[in-house]
Amino acid sequence: MIAWRANILGKLAICLSLIGGLFGCSGNAALSADTTHYEFFLENSTLEMKDGVRLAVTYYRPVAKKPRETFPVIMEMLPYRKDDFFALGDYEYGSYFAKRGYVVARVDVRGTGGSEGGIPESEYSEAEISDAEALIAQLSKMSWSNGNVGMYGLSWSAFNSLMTAHRKPPALKAIIAAHGSTDLFYNDVHYIDGALHIDSYAHQIDTDNSMPQSPDYRIDEDYFRNRFDREPWIFTWLRQQQDGDFWRKESLKFKAPLEVPSYLIGGLLDGYRDFVMDVGRTAKAPVIAEIGPWNHAWPEYGVPGPNYEWRQKALRWWDYWLKGIDHGILDEPRWMAFMRTGHAPATDLTTVPGYWRCDKQWPSDGSSTQRLYPQTAQHLGNAPAALETAQALLYRAGIGMAAGGWWGEQTGDMATDDAHSLVYDSAPLAEALEIMGMPQVRLRVAADAPFYQWTVRLEDVAPDGKVSLVSGAIINSSQRFSRLEPAALIPGEPTTLTTSVHFTTWRFKPGHRIRLAVANAQFPMIWPSPTPGATSLLLSNDTWLELPVVPMQNETNQACILPPPEPSDAAPFGKELEKNGPVFNSFRNEQTGDSTFTTANDVTWIIRDDKFRSSESYRWDVNDAMPANARYQGERRNIFTIKGNEIDLSTKARIESDALYFDVTFTKTLRKNGELIREKTWVDHIPRMHQ
């Protein structure tokens, strides 16, 4: 099916991975003038799976400096289309490691990008992880391979690196995983903390998966059968509203401890950051763990900084496990986290105040916990209230926009959300307090309806009254006894809820106050619960906040010395032309109770003579008086101009709820050179199940 395999073995030529089948080769192999580095070339090929499906792979291959020299292989496997969407970004990392003596194999997941086969049933399918095992075995046996393979990646490829490592394929010696997850129901993008989260990602991936196979972009019956006509994944995820086998099949949380060495990277503004501690606590093989101040990104460019060049340590990691060269990587402190030293709320910081803490283990020596109890008069104290007291909380479905789309990203002043929450403040601190870890929360509550969500936010109140978000968590009350057997609340009957707040670091400065904020909505992060009404928080010894306190360190005498970021090689075959966004906007009308949250993004890039544009816009709406009738609507459009032919794929999605159902509509529209080729709409009426 794929007839574009580039046969350049043994040639000192550069074969660039280009869109639309334009895989050109030059006569000069030298991509680096630095003689200490390897020259390298790109080779586009396929690898055949057991069922005959061929997966597309781009190799970044060093040119051997001596006869019969072999190299380890680093594999990354994604559905994010290596030949168009990710071509420019992949080059930065493929070139970096290839120039330093590693073959990088970038593979498209079956049914996506340049790979054959149908789109899998969902993310991280049995087929995908089995393919990863087969790929590792084949890569280890290539004539230019030394037999050792590593896996790495950020987000999706971190997830499948962890999952594949659990299966322990013999040739897989180590992994690097940034922003992964060990718990697909609680700590992924579909059900944050067990509560329904409708993210723009769900719309985006269903659109991009429907694009024709690169590099030919043929529109034929195979394309319609394997891609365009496949039901969007968003329906699958909405039909799986409770934890169970679907989510646990590949979730490491429910499997034996990891036995493959792992270098883990997280971000304090990333929704997946807890996985670093989850793996680090249980792994049976060596682990290096780093958590920085940034969002969903690699450490050399993540926002906000400070940044560092993680690829230098990555090379030492790969050298040890894949080449047998010991630079002392395992003799150094293996736990590193950035201590944020408290700052005013801001959405545009480029650098966060703080310092790096390095420890040989976690928790660090001298760690302790401090328990604080909500009391009357909105006070947070060291002892529980003398008498159990009920404090009423009116449910306002549109509250939560100040915290953004998930437990990450930079946030402004939380006072707007706190105005509609129960808040409890400590006395002004006499001395600084540093925390690092996952705060614990217990709430004794009662409600007037069978289902509510609770949200808890840990915040820092400055002397001037400005409120900074430190971290937060959602509690789906139906899962209070069991995630596998959800149960409705009994109206009027008290019950106890517990949760871990997502991993965080923070220094509360002298004069500042620690705040616990409690609400029943975190819009648009969580789909609103359906019943207008009120809940109660019962102040007692069963309602508390517990902080993971660590010993103070002198930030001017830090233990970690980190290299500054290095410039990355720009792909010689293309560039980004224009980018607008993402732009976030929120609107709330206190008089009508209407709340709206929107995002928009637009990017255009070019690869040789081909031009690509992707645009998207999404909107979430809810009204406080009618929370059951929440709504999401989105549009995404990809316009690819390949060899003068314009392929235009647009999608529209709409999710509307009432008290009992989700009504879901998804439409794909394909045009070529302005002519309508096919349009298809999927519709379903999905029962609400404790969401």
From TrEMBL:
All copies of domain Xaa-Pro dipeptidyl-peptidase C-terminal, residue ranges: 315-548
Keywords assigned: Hydrolase, Signal
Q: Could you cite one Gene Ontology molecular function of this protein?
A: dipeptidyl-peptidase activity
Question: What Gene3D superfamilies does its record include?
Answer: alpha/beta hydrolase (3.40.50.1820), Galactose-binding domain-like (2.60.120.260)
- UniProt xrefs under Pfam families: Peptidase_S15, PepX_C
Q: Which InterPro entries match?
A: AB_hydrolase_fold, CocE/Ser_esterase, Galactose-bd-like_sf, Xaa-Pro-like_dom, Xaa-Pro_dipept_C, Xaa-Pro_dipeptidyl-ppase/CocE
Signal peptide start and end residues = 1-29
| PANTHER family in UniProt | COCE_NOND FAMILY, PUTATIVE (AFU_ORTHOLOGUE AFUA_7G00600)-RELATED, PEPTIDASE S9 PROLYL OLIGOPEPTIDASE
Descriptive protein name: CocE/NonD family hydrolase
Q: Which NCBIfam families match?
A: CocE_NonD
